[in-house]
Amino acid sequence: MALPRTFVSLEDPRFRLLWFGNIFSFLGMQMQVIARGYLAFDLTHKNSALGGVMLAFGVPQLLLSLWGGVIADRLPKRRVLMVCQLIIASNSVWVAAMIYTDNIAYWMLIVAGVVQGVGFSFIGPARQAFISDLIDKDRLGNAVVLQQLSMNSTRVIGPSLAGMFIAVSAIGTGGVYLITTLGFIVATIFMLWLPPGNPKKRDTPRSPLADLTDGLRYVYARPNVGLLILASFAVVMVGFPYQSFLPSIAKDVYGVGAGGLGTLSSVGAVGAVIATVIVAGASQKRSFLYQPLAGIVFGFALIGLGASSTFAVGLVAMFFVGALASAFQSLNNSLVMTLTDHEYHGRVQSMNMMSWSLFGLAALPIGIMADHVGIQEMLVLQGAFCVVAIIAIELYRRASGARAVSPPPGTPHTEGVAGGG
To answer: pTM of the full predicted structure?
Structure first.
């Protein structure tokens, strides 16, 4: 039986396996974000400590993400994903052991963040590029959005479960880390039934450095793709660190504990799921209009969260923050994938995902500023930056037409270059 347009990519059994496996991985990731933030704030009582954990996660991604894209385009993607997820699972077991033996210290969260950052530098590009190995191009945009849906769906239940388990003394943060370990292992098992995701055979071998340079030239020759990546940098790097400071907002602004933190995160996730379902079922024809609009309205929603003084109003603001953040990211990722040739998916996605490493880097100075000016005031500044940045990028795109220039010498592909939309 044919599925509705929103879920059409799930008709493919191979993509279904990847999709369901990712749910377990994303569930573990979302629970660990809450546990890690709660533990870091509990150990230090500083917003800058939350930013420090994100910095530890972000620096390796900044240094290695581009190489992760090169690896995704050179090696079997399934092998890359399985190895990296098992490394992250081992990292989670170590943190859990330190918690249970009462030896946990803040510096250990930094080390664990570095290991995770290294792992996700290779997981992110490989996972995104793997989609195009499993699904035909006509459904690629839908598949990318459904990938986002699987992540957002786990954000509905993951933070609530993490908050609930942390509050149970018999489980606590150590138990949450063990549960996340199980999620990564289950996701790895699902991949055993997937094809290897071998790269396309080449007539002449090239070095990894040559592949990296070629990927940069490829994006330079396609301004629409480059501007999409720039927009992702602006919103994700500056706007998305609000997620890192939810423990501080829950405790210091609204006066709620771990359960309230889980509720705050879950409400944002509900908005994200609803928005992603809407995007998945929508036509791609006007995505170039909807993507910047979502980024601008996200900035205003973040300003609204910063202006919220009560928990009830904060929950309403979080719903729209989550919804618009997801809509922007889904549209941005979908456009980047559909405008990119298959053999470049890993490298181009790695460039787009560098915004997440910059998110980690920006979280520390944002946290330091929040300690001085206040977390609510900082949220307002973050939202205002997103609004101004996306408007500026969109005005430039429209003024220039974002027409593709002739590729530099050595860039092998010149076809399929999208013009302004």
So the answer is: 0.75
